[in-house]
Amino acid sequence: MAYPRSFLGLLLTGFTVVALPLVGALAYSAWNTERLAEQSRNAVFSASQAARASRSLVNRIGSIERMAQQIVVLDDPEIEADYQRVHQNFKQVADELLLLPLDESQLSALNRTVQQEQALYDLLSAKPRPKLHPRDMSQRTGELAENAYEVLAISYLVADREVARLRANAETVQRRLILLVIFGTAVALTIALALTRYIARPITQLDAAIRQLGGADFAHPITVGGPEDLQSLGERLDWLRRRLAELEAEKNRFLRHLSHELKTPLTALREGAELLNDQVGGPLAPPQRQVVGIMRDNSVKLQRLIEDLLDYQRALHAAASLMPRIVPLDALVREVALGHELAMRAKAQRLVLKVDKVAVEADPEKLRSIVDNLVGNAVKFTPAGGSITVLARANGPEAVIDVIDSGPGVPAEERESIFDSFFRGRAKASSRVEGTGLGLAIAREFTEAHGGRISVVTEGGGGHFRVRLPRKARTLEEAA
After folding, report:
1. SS3 string of the chain?
2. Is the model's pTM score more than 0.70?
């Protein structure tokens, strides 16, 4: 299915499609409500008309009964004229009743009443009029009145019948509306779920593209479908990918050239200093040997600084691309700590290892670098004859690594900046303690890349660094 031209158009289209079943259900409900209201008005009108016409019919019957008795006794033309008008009114009221929705019993009673009244009228209007006895007339008019009251009694049932019919219609409409609401909601939710996947597809592609760039994956092209504005955004992201790939290549070339350009003269400088120190070119006076020693030591220091800087740049790039797998933390910590055994022996330092058997899901090389930097930092700042303790244990969903030394510790004013790049602090243990200030910065980068945290523990004397790592690697969503 083709997408609209803009993302806003896509949202409006989706909203319209989702709203259609609900709007249809609302329109159907309004139509049924209006129809039910119309039926209610008709029912009330019919009931009121039936009651009014029935009462009027009874009143006319009463007048007819009195006038019929008077005509039989008095034989007065004026009374006959009045009787004729009452008869016409009676017929009009009867015709009105016949127009109402009456049932068979009501129609039968009304027809009997009309026939009896018409027969009485024909009898009293006949020329010559037969001689009638008042008692016979009373019997005839009494039967007519009884039929009229029967019509009146039945008319009261019209309201009850209409009310029952309205109640039944209302219940039917209610059931239909409930079913319609359930069905309309289900259809709307189904359409909404389908449209959510349809609308979210280009969003998911954008999210994957951004994660691809964040993971420094510049090799695969970025393609985003959907509306034209999102496709244009995808094209811009692909341009950014190409540009970042070019910058990455330029940076790598720069680092390679820098390494080559700096190491080549440094190597010549070091070799020359070594040759002079070995007195290959002839014997040196003590002041000359002192100058050569300074040259040699500083060339070694400069080369180490350059290598550390290049290693730090590589570490920053590597922190963004972890390759986690199950790593036995106890074995890795023991192996890294024992790797510093010769340096510890040279300073007569004592190593204490207390590692529990625990496994973590991490990048083994990055994890090794974290422990190596912490242990190396402890060896560097612990004075001769001191002790270094390395602990590793599980703490719920986390793995905890502690590296504790008997050195001077970290001053309170330096605890916030000790993990910054190139920060070296004050070397209290020995004036010969030197470094680039990158080891702890690399440890922090790798720790945070795993979703963990590294900190300085303030309790106790000496230096105490603690690393907390999740035992299960983070997903891409959690890492973001």
Report:
1. CCCCCCHHHHHHHHHHHHHHHHHHHHHHHHHHHHHHHHHHHHHHHHHHHHHHHHHHHHHHHHHHHHHHHHHHHHCCHHHHHHHHHHHHHHHHHHHHHHHCCCCHHHHHHHHHHHHHHHHHHHHHHCCCCCCCCHHHHHHHHHHHHHHHHHHHHHHHHHHHHHHHHHHHHHHHHHHHHHHHHHHHHHHHHHHHHHHHHHHHHHHHHHHHHHHHHHCCCCCCCCCCCCCHHHHHHHHHHHHHHHHHHHHHHHHHHHHHHHHHHHHHHHHHHHHHHHHHHCCCCCCCCHHHHHHHHHHHHHHHHHHHHHHHHHHHHHHHHHHCCCCCEEEEHHHHHHHHHHCCHHHHHHCCCEEEEEECCCEEEECHHHHHHHHHHHHHHHHHHCCCCCEEEEEEEEECCEEEEEEEECCCCCCHHHCCCCCCCCCCCCCCCCCCCCCCCCHHHHHHHHHHHCCCEEEECCCCCCCEEEEEEECCCCCHHHHC
2. no
